[in-house]
Automatic annotation (TrEMBL):
<keyword id="KW-0805">Transcription regulation</keyword>
<dbReference type="InterPro" id="IPR000524">
    <property type="entry name" value="Tscrpt_reg_HTH_GntR"/>
</dbReference>
<dbReference type="Pfam" id="PF00392">
    <property type="entry name" value="GntR"/>
</dbReference>
<dbReference type="InterPro" id="IPR036390">
    <property type="entry name" value="WH_DNA-bd_sf"/>
</dbReference>
<keyword id="KW-0238">DNA-binding</keyword>
<protein>
    <submittedName>
        <fullName>GntR family transcriptional regulator</fullName>
    </submittedName>
</protein>
<dbReference type="InterPro" id="IPR008920">
    <property type="entry name" value="TF_FadR/GntR_C"/>
</dbReference>
<dbReference type="GO" id="GO:0003677">
    <property type="term" value="F:DNA binding"/>
</dbReference>
<dbReference type="InterPro" id="IPR036388">
    <property type="entry name" value="WH-like_DNA-bd_sf"/>
</dbReference>
<dbReference type="Pfam" id="PF07729">
    <property type="entry name" value="FCD"/>
</dbReference>
<dbReference type="InterPro" id="IPR011711">
    <property type="entry name" value="GntR_C"/>
</dbReference>
<keyword id="KW-0804">Transcription</keyword>
<dbReference type="GO" id="GO:0003700">
    <property type="term" value="F:DNA-binding transcription factor activity"/>
</dbReference>
<feature type="domain" description="HTH gntR-type">
    <location>
        <begin position="6"/>
        <end position="73"/>
    </location>
</feature>
Length: 257
């Protein structure tokens, strides 16, 4: 791979981040600055700068004279990420209730109707990548409708952190896709009625389910994190209440939006 653009640091940063997201680089792996520079056919300086930027964002730990350590996601990290994401998306849906246009509402309706049809009315095998694209479109449309586009960058950062866990692959189960579509429909219905309270509750509930299923998935697939388990009563975002039915861990398939 050869870089010719002036912004070598940004290109190296994007390459490394994509490898973190698709798990080419696995948790606990030690990367060599020298090896990366040779592979990318560049000097070590942009690699070092890119690594330092990724360290600031919490993806890796740059260890001078040793290498670049790929950091895993702890259960406390997961809780923190979902707290931030939930707060941001509740803000987005609250603002959207005030500003959403007919066009944005129609996009949301069509997106959710397609999800409901595919995952509740047909027997086609779920394509988790397709559902994630559809899910991302749904959440991004709400953010655009909110009128505060800075939210999109912040939410995408949280999504990327969740994606690093590998839980998206569990989105291949029809039952969870169908449930998520129904949760989306509840949000759309509240937006149609400009019911701010219901829209915020629906978004909080939806992301609460995402958190619990992610929490359960990581524990089942990463036994070493069992000691870091969070009690169920700590799963709700402070100031936001999850429905009573979510008080027990959910063992259903996991998804990330």
């Amino acid at each position: 791979m050869e870089y010719k653009n002036q912004s070598l640091q940004m290109q190296v940063y994007r390459t490394m981040k994509q490898r973190l997201l698709d798990q080419t680089y696995v948790n606990g792996q030690m990367l060599s600055e020298r090896t990366l520079a040779a592979e990318l056919q560049i000097s070590r300086t942009p690699v070092r700068r890119a690594a330092l930027q990724l360290q600031k964002e919490g993806w890796i730990q740059y260890i001078p004279k040793r290498g670049i350590l790929v950091k895993g996601l702890s259960m406390q990290d997961l809780k923190n990420i979902f707290q931030i994401r939930t707060a941001l998306e509740i803000l987005a849906v609250r603002l959207a209730c005030e500003h959403i246009s007919a066009d944005h509402l129609e996009v949301l309706r069509q997106t959710v109707q397609q999800q409901l049809f595919k995952y509740k009315q047909t027997q086609a095998a779920p394509d988790y990548q397709e559902f994630i694209r559809s899910d991302t479109e749904f959440h991004n449309t709400i953010i655009v409708a909110s009128g505060n586009l800075m939210l999109r960058r912040l939410v995408e950062e949280m999504r990327d952190k969740i994606k690093r866990t590998g839980i998206n692959s569990l989105y291949s189960r029809r039952s969870r896709c169908a449930e998520a579509a129904e949760e989306h429909w509840r949000i759309v219905h509240a937006l149609e009625n400009k019911d701010t309270h219901e829209a915020c509750q629906a978004m909080d509930s939806h992301l609460g389910i995402c958190y619990i299923t992610a929490h359960d998935y990581i524990l089942r697939h990463t036994p070493a994190l069992a000691a870091d388990t969070l009690p169920t009563e700590s799963l709700s975002v402070e100031g936001m209440i999850l429905p009573p039915e979510l008080e027990e861990p959910v063992s259903e398939a996991v998804h990330e939006h």
